[in-house]
Amino acid sequence: MVAHAEIRVVHLGGSKINFREPVITNDSRFLLCASGESVKVYSSSSEECVHDLQGHTDLVSGIVRNPSNHLQVYSCSADGTVRLWDFTDGILIKTFIIGYPIYSIYVSENHGGVVFVVVPMANDKSSELFQLVAVHLPLSGDQEVEARELSAVLCDVSPSGAASFGRKGEYIAAVKGLQLEVFFFKKQKSHRFFLKSGNKKGAKNAFTCVSCHPKEDCIATGHEDGKIRLWRNFNQKKEYTYSTLHWHHGAVNTLQFTPEGTNLLSGGIESVLVQWHYTQEDQKDFLPRLGGAITHIAVSPDGSLFCTSHSDNKITIIQSCVKVSAIIQGLVKGEGVRTDLTIDPRSKALVLNGKPGHLQFYSLHRDKLLYNLDIVQQEYIHEEGLDQFEVVKAAFDTRGDWLATVEERTQKGLELEINLKLWAYDEQTQSFMLNTTVTAPHEDQITAMCFSPSPETTMLVTISFDGHFKAWLLADHSDTKEGASWSCDFVGGYHHLKPGCCCFSADGSLLAVGFQEVVTVWSPSWELLTTLSQPPGAIRDLCFGRLSCSKYLLGTSTKNQLCCWNLLTCSLEWSTPVDVSLLQADPLSENMAAFCSQSGCSDLFVFKPGEPRPIYSQKALCTGKVQRAVFAPRDQMLESCEEHAQWLNRSQLYFFTQHMDLMMFSTKTEEDRLLASSKRLMVDDTVAVTPFYLLLGKHRQQQEALTNPMAERIQLPQGSIAIKELLYTPAHVLPSASFLCSMFVRSLLISSSSASEEKEPVEEEMESEEEDSEGEAELRDARQDLGGSEAWGPGEELGAPALTKAQERELRRVKHFDHSWLSSILEC
Amino acid sequence: MASFKSTKIPIYPKLGEKVTPDTLYWKNYKAPVQIKEFGAVTSIDFSSLAPHNYAVTASTRIHIYGPFSTEPVKTFTRFKDTAYSGKFRSDGQLLVAGCEDSVVRLFDVSGKVALRVFKGHTKGVHVTDFTSDCYHILTGSDDYTCRLWDIPNSTELTSYKEHTDYVRCAITSKLNRDIFITGSYDHTLRVFDARVEKSVMTMDHSQPVESVLLYPSEGLLVSAGGRYVKVWDLLKGGQPLVSLKNHHKTVTCLSLSSNGQRLLSASLDRHVKIYNTTNYKVVHNFDYAASILSLALAPDDESIVVGMTNGVLSIKHRKSSEEKREMAGKQRMQPVYRIFVKGRNYVPKKDDFLVSKPVKSHLAKYDKQLKKFNISKALDTALESWRRNKNPEITVAVMKELDRRGTLKNALAGRAEQNLSLLLKFLIGNVVDPRFTPVLVTATEMILDIYQAVVGQSSVVDRQLVCLQELVEREVDYQQDLLEVLGMLDTLFAASLPRKEVPCPGSSRPNGLAEGCLGAPGPQLQSA
């Protein structure tokens, strides 16, 4: 994939975080979700990503808590493995190899050592039928274990999220199509319940989701037509009953009982979280307008936090069904990206449309979504088949003072509704304010739009299929109250041809508009200066050369031509038969990037318009066509001496592949530099004196004494990366103060139950245990040598002159405690 | 959880002229007082003395009006033929007037009989003026001459015979007693110096000159003739500065507003245009009932007096500041401002404990219904009579919102006769409004679809439907006519525009592959 070792293509922007149900940890402090090939651990209070658990080699298709250890989770993936993670430290504990692609995973407290996974029936990926199998996880100390002990539980289940364990794990309920199947583990028997397909009154009875009551024998199922059925008495084949709840008007996407079983949560396309009271179903609470359609609901084990995944790549954390406390928002991408990629000149953020009716500002520097700007400013109606306003075009002027957006709504059989909006940047609020709305600026779709880069005028040009292009000018009515607003200045056309693209020259002195096969060049006073054409094939893209190449105009046509015209002689300089799907000019240099599609793959050529010889080329960049691309200017110029990497010195090139993955070109030196800077961040040695420091300091000092027994003066704790890392770890990643404090206090107590505490599961502490014993041996020596040096450790002050046996032991325990905990920090 | 976004009510641009400080200034006049004179009012002149009386010359009389009287304060009737150009001296004591019988008469403002009679012209004297030293009189006559007369001796001082047509306008310099400017139907403007025998400067207006005007600084000269108003720079030897063509008939009179910032021109096309004297753009426009012959402004723009060909004298007085306040007082019927701000501008003290209260966003009635998805009720609230009549854009916006939600049909359906007729009434009133047509046509189609089964059951609804049909048919005809006119205009424009050849290398020589290969070295992208 990579032609030159120094330039590599880096994946950016993360994957979908709403693919599977997220998991909230027992203490409600972390939220885990599957994201592409990794599992992400987010802090539920600060919305920051704490860990990225990497290890799977294919899409992660499910996460569950380990019922026997609340600090561990299982994850399954399409690569055929189930992995056990310690999410607080971000370590992979074990890998169980199943051997078949796994589509979801279920566990139950009452089935220890067994996980239930959904795998294809036949051993090939193309199979449409799936089965639920129980996997006995072998107990073994190895890191990688093959788990081949599979036993089928249910046949023909749906691949995702449509199964649930009932009371005390006695049965499992799964739904698919029009059937509900309940499998009783004791009897090893399953009951099936069928519903009619029910065309009457628009009823669509197909099951969509299922959830079992944790305390009672009750199964809740959601249906296509928005009904929820509560099934009871289902251990008999015939005398089962069900009651129906109906509020949703679209399909019920997800159902979840709260851990105590008092409430049932449901969500669907309406984006309303509905809380049904279990015994009084007529009472319900609503939490409306959460964002996109709700796809999953998860509840924390203590029932205090809910979280909902939304179709717009978002996870909302809700406190006790009242308040939204945190929102984890990923980059929204997909088929809906209709605007070109643009760069906000102020924030240097990548701008594209995301949520319906919004523009998203994505910081490339931090790889994080900054904010969403509401463009349409209308209440979004969550309903299928409704024609909504979509943001289709966005453009910034060169200084970032103005943003122009085009939104449109197509209706069946009715005319197109188009609005052109112009937003002014407001310094005080640090965001864009709506200045002018132009309803129906053109009679047909707007195909391109650009601001004039000239500093004197603020001008926008829009190009539309109605055969016209319009120039909009900012008219200053400073004498009246309204202030500046935009108005149409000029309407142009050329022989009633449909214009397709437009481009301003770098100084704004020329405007090129491509009318099918003809390129027209206009002066700022709207005189048609010249026309250029290169038949056959309509012009697809136009670009002016910059800096030293400003006399060239480049155009691509549908008939696989890349042409370069010299504007001084008005003649063709060179042309080449290449199927260029996308042409982008670097705003800071002469370079141009052309993405060409050839036999299902995309190639990249970087060249200067002056010479028809690429300065960089990369074949087979990705499969399919490159959809969008943009040059993002760098903050600092990179000094790279390799000839073929020089084009990346001023700007970075970002692009969207066919599968809407955001990619970036980056150089090796740059990555090294980044790595170095992140390391430099951690190194520092002056530390404030806090109780926390004293606790650690005592520890450090002991170690110091071991290594350098001759040192008389008190040394500042330095050297150990572990402590530095600990002290420089962001506060939100650290354990809570109460946690540290109780441990500190407990270490001072002379416990009588030390024996019981030593029985802790020590699986993950084995290495640290060894270190401990070593340390202890040395410690005793050190004690004898330097009895007085502990004087500044408050914990030790009492027993400074001579250590009793009990104190000695207590000290050991303190050390043991801190160490194991530190080592865990060290891993992060 | 985002809050409910209220329905956007589009703000439509106000049609008509923009409100500028100029329009506000010039609109601040009372309704005009109209006085019928005996014939066409050819000249109006304000006295510079305190009450600022003005002399109106019409037919064979000169009337002197007080600033607020509608009856003449004084009348001079001793003219044997049509009188022209009654002018006050700068001290306001004397008045001079020309006459069709070629005699120039000088009156004392308080007397009746002419103090002096100047005879010498052979034809009607259309223009008279005092020189700035108050001892001489300038006259211009249809015998192509202009003359200077001495008042004490009542003798002719000089006669200039340079014009080759009627002299119809003249002005004396206020700064120099010897300088005066005349304009004539021979298309020229001439600057004379009484100390020299010939004109010192000649400018060609290229139209018969009807009126001349000097700026207070006397550096610029304004002349009107034909449809043009031209401004000349005297200090640059009579160089033309601007030529304004804003009237579509002959401009007859010019005037400066008191502060010299605005220039007024009156014309036979019944308009008075006001120009900004810095950029010479029209800032305001007055319309009158008949062709205007004369125009004058009282000092400080206290009143605008216009004389017309039908003998009507129209006087507009400026609204005094008291009256304005009175008007404002009438409008203020709402509660006092401090009731609104009560308790809201309280600044918390240092030790106060602040309890933050969530700001409750206020939603309009129809928005509350929309929030609850009560679509019919939302439409009902939007159709409330006051809202429907006063802000039809709100009703239309709610309809549009319902249409966007795909529920407009449901909201329109199931209405009783009374309710339906209300709806139809609204449609009849607004469907042809171009701002609302796109939405209301959809609504109308839906109503017709829904209620076609019940046509004929209610006479009220039927009548309204017929009315709606007629309205739509009329509108369609009207649009068709407009399109025809547009087509004609297009043809006219296309014919009048000079045909310009666009330099197109493609048309003259093949701009194709052949040349590309000849030019630059062969493209190499492919081989790379």
In short:
The complex is a heterodimer of chains A (828) and B (528). Helices cover 12% and strands 42% of the residues of chain A.
Walk me through what this model shows.
The complex is a heterodimer of chains A (828) and B (528). Helices cover 12% and strands 42% of the residues of chain A. In chain A, the strands form 14 sheets. A 5-stranded mixed beta sheet of chain A has the order 6-7-8-9-13, with no helix packed on it. In chain A, a hairpin with a 3-residue loop joins strand 48 (552-557) and strand 49. Chain B is α+β, with helices and mostly antiparallel strands and 528 residues long. Chain B has 13 helices and 28 strands. In chain B, the strands form 7 sheets. Chain B has a 4-stranded antiparallel beta sheet with strand order 1-28-27-26, with no helix packed on it. In chain B, strands 2-3-4-5 form a 4-stranded antiparallel beta sheet, with no helix packed on it. In chain B, strands 6-7-8-9 form a 4-stranded antiparallel beta sheet, with no helix packed on it. The longest helix of chain B is centred in the C-terminal third of the chain and has 38 residues, at 459-496. The two termini of chain B are 54 Å apart. The interface between A and B is large, with 51 and 40 residues.
List key phrases describing it.
heterodimer; A: 828 residues; mainly beta; five-stranded mixed sheet; 57 strands; globular; disordered N terminus; B: 528 residues; alpha+beta; four-stranded antiparallel sheet; 13 helices; 30% strand; elongated; disordered C terminus
- Could you name the ranges of chain A where pLDDT drops below 50 across 5 or more consecutive residues? 1-5, 678-689, 707-720, 754-800
- Uncertain runs of chain B: 504-528
Number of strands of chain B: 28
Strand order of the largest sheet of chain A: 6-7-8-9-13
